[in-house]
């Protein structure tokens, strides 16, 4: 039987992935902090086993992962959060909160899980298309996702000789509780159902880089090839 661990499975993209993989017949380890959501998930499908821990707490993460009921072959590191900076006024505690979950939390998760990694296993890391260009107000979030992107791409290089594939996932805007907080227009916003499908399809083909939605992420990647001053002129208008 196919087995997957998903962090951030109580909401948004991770929740949809957990439901969809369970329907596909996977045994799913659904991770998060929200006990009620995890209970609802495991009650909704007997293929879903909840794992509760806070990724910013290394001891809690390690304790939860050290006692897995089964060993996954697919590991999806998806948990994350987004907070924006206002008017270019850096708030170090905000930056720390965002990096603590998106970067250090990711490292805690991988550190705890890596003892189980074996040849043939597959890792998916959810980054963001925000890592490709400097977007307005994204000093903390974009910076954290640039770090995630670098970490995941480096892992691709280092784990390949061990027979372990790493896929880096670059979503554009997806409608979730995370983006429901946004007050600006989000071009080409897609549903979680579509995001889950794109991710599952990309992972099933073992794509090393999974970008979606195609048009929006292609435009941003194209902008990312321009001189920085042109990039800034375009992105400041794109997400005003
Ligand atoms: N939505 C988008 O447009 C978009 C675009 C690009 C990239 N992404 C990335 O996609 C991922 C999922 O985003 P989403 O939109 O689905 O967000 P979401 O609906 O807010 O879900 C975030 C998930 O992360 C978990 N999480 C947050 N902090 C945690 C912590 N300290 N410990 C353990 N789990 C924690 C949450 O679980 P608990 O609350 O139960 O802890 C929740 O399940 C994130 O990495 C995000 O950066 C999203």
UniProtKB/TrEMBL annotation:
Keyword annotations of the record:
Oxidoreductase
PROSITE patterns from the xrefs? ADH_SHORT
According to the UniProt entry, its GO molecular function terms are: oxidoreductase activity
Q: Which residues cross the membrane?
A: none
Keyword check for Ligase, yes or no.
Answer: no
- InterPro entries in the cross-refs: NAD(P)-bd_dom_sf, Sc_DH/Rdtase_CS, SDR_fam
Gene3D superfamilies per the record?
Answer: NAD(P)-binding Rossmann-like Domain
- Is Nucleotidyltransferase one of the keywords? no
Quote the cellular component terms of the Gene Ontology held in the record.
membrane
PANTHER family cross-referenced by the UniProt entry: DEHYDROGENASE/REDUCTASE SDR FAMILY MEMBER 7B, DEHYDROGENASE_REDUCTASE SDR FAMILY MEMBER 7B
Record-stated family: Belongs to the short-chain dehydrogenases/reductases (SDR) family.
Protein name according to UniProt: SDR family NAD(P)-dependent oxidoreductase
